[in-house]
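Why does this matter for the project? Reviewers at the last site visit asked to see concrete outputs rather than summary tables. In response, this paragraph embeds two records directly. Each consists of the residue sequence and, immediately after it, the corresponding structure tokens. Nothing has been edited or filtered.
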Amino acid sequence: MRVLAFEDTYDLTAMLDAAGCNLSGVELVQRWNSNDPLKHIMEFKPDVVMLDFFMPPYSGLEVLQMLNMATHNKQLSRPNLIIGISSEAEANKALAKEGADACIIKFDIHTLDLWKTKI
């Protein structure tokens, strides 16, 4: 499973390791800013995209809007799963309203079934 995470503050691999998640079979790439998000998505071809809401230069909401537009225009294929990972519930609600498949407070990402199943 290929996971592309846009998160600028916390090392998600370290968080998942500390929580005891088994990441074997998971290729997790983290981008520490949202520069050229569609380029990264097109090149990596992730199964899962994780979006922090508050991230420079584009918010997770803006990245999701760009992704939705590019998918609509057939510029790229939509990943199987898009997950909002903001630390604020209201930001996650905005991501869900824009089409995120799931949203979770980032400090709880270790509880996602994602780490237990293959996509």
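We now turn to the second protein, recorded in exactly the same manner.
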Amino acid sequence: SGMSTLKVDTLQTTGGAGLYPARAWLNYNQVVVGITNSANVSSVTDVAAGQFTVSFTNAFTANTYCAGSVGFKSVGSAYVRDIYMDGDDTQSTSSSQVRSESTNGSNPSDVESNKISWTL
């Protein structure tokens, strides 16, 4: 059977509270440079060590979105990797610049597994 599409402008619980699903999400490996899985992400561009730009398939209506992320500590590594958006980087409705660094002195470093979602 065919696939159905549900189109809505606002999602709410039965009690009327708003629901805010991710508008885009990404699981990205900077070390081997590849998208593991994603939604509403057209591409990822490696900018420098610990820095990459995510391009969205469908642009956001504003660049004031919120990005939530999870850092990854490799097996056997002593340090966690932080993933964040830098206030000095330009965020646009069609792309988001993301940075990562090691917790051992804030050194920019590539991360094996970046898990990020964007909501507006």
